[in-house]
Amino acid sequence: MLQSVVTSEVTAGLSLLSDQEIEAIAVDAWQGLSDVGDVDDLVRRREVEVVPERNLPDGFDGLALPHKLLVRPSRIRGLWVLRVLHELAHHWLASRFHTHADAWRLTLALAWPAFRVRRGLRSLEIPEWALTLRVLILEESRVISAA
Ligand SMILES: [Zn+2]
Q: Is the pLDDT score of 147 beyond 50?
């Protein structure tokens, strides 16, 4: 379900931000973090608090508030990380015009920013299908070779 929604958003959804803009935000988000930085470091850097919330309405896995990200918990670590990254992406994009496709593209870029790919560093732990989608974007956009 989530996989098909995200795949269609990312591959066919309306996006307003360019690949370069998305990558630049991801670079900004990772600024100052070490090679072993993880999702918790991104959250700290953004100065928000992640609150696990089981009682979100159907169809919603999270909500980005000004200082708080409500995220539906999951026993699957990769899915939890993906949900947190998605709310972080919404938080980063809150001050500019964007679409949900942009939010998902940034979600995936936060998990594995181009500069970390280039340096041979691993992605954050996200579901295999999401990582595959990210690799596809990197190949198609050529943000890797462009830099
Ligand atoms: Zn969303």
A: no
Distance 74 CA to ligand 1 centre (A): 17
Say how many Å lie between the CA of residue 83 and the centre of ligand 1: 9
- 62 bridge partner residues: 71
142 alpha carbon – ligand 1 mean position (Å): 25
| Mean pLDDT of the region 59-78 | 96
Query: By the 8 A CB rule, do 96 and 12 touch?
Result: no
How far is the C-alpha of 58 from the C-alpha of 41, rounded, in Å?
29
pLDDT at 146 over 80: no
Q: pTM for this one?
A: 0.94
Q: How far is the CA of 86 from the centre of ligand 1 (A)?
A: 6
